[in-house]
Amino acid sequence: MNDPAFARTRENGTEFTNVAHSGKMIRNANSVLIRKAYDGTLSNRLMKVLSLVKNEDANSSRGNRTVFEGIGTNDGKNLLKGFDFNSRSQLTSVLQAPFVLDTATGKVTIEDLVPLDMLAYPQNSTHVSFRTGFLNLDFETGAFEITYSPVVTLELDMTVSSPEMLPTAVPGGSGTQFYFFLIEFMQEVNGVQYALNDGKFNVLSLLDVD
After folding, report:
1. Minimal CA–CA distance to 49: which of 2, 84, 74?
2. E strands, 34-169, where?
3. 12 near 65, Cβ under 8 Å?
4. pLDDT of 144-167, one tens digit each?
5. Could you give the CA distance from residue 85 to residue 36 in angstroms, rounded to a whole number?
6. At a CB cut-off of 8 Å and minimum separation 6, what does 201 contact?
7. pTM (global) more than 0.70
């Protein structure tokens, strides 16, 4: 614990613990959406990115660098932008329609969407749903608040529409703001829509960090 020969090991361990704790904060704060779209590599992939975010901390000495400080930089934020929680189904490969994010409200608008033409959907699915999450997370204290949009569900057909997903409120508190976008596929049987069991085609993407 005190041997100078193991100073680097202790420093690495301290920073590893901070990164692991920060990853757990994100997963816990956004568990409602994550359980809809994730894969078995999520924890490790998220930790890998957060370790890079931690490296952007230029204010702390080695062994004391934190995600809290790193995420305060533009480079730290950019490292997390576009992170896909389900590596088997990434936003850029599933949605081929333009969309706009309003960072003031967390609203996402998909412009002129034609589901059959602009979505890569799994076999036997009949409907698609969209939902957004707006998270405010303080990595220093662990405090967070998250709000969600109502679910917007569309039939997988050739109908043109521009769905809007607006969170019910702007989350309070201080910290870093995260904007999540969920795409979930379903199958309708006898008028009832069922989520596909494996969820491997569902998308959850971190659109922006502010």
Report:
1. 84
2. 99-102, 107-110, 127-137, 144-148, 152-155, 164-165
3. no
4. 999 999 999 999 999 999 999 999
5. 10
6. 88, 89, 94, 121, 122, 125, 185
7. yes
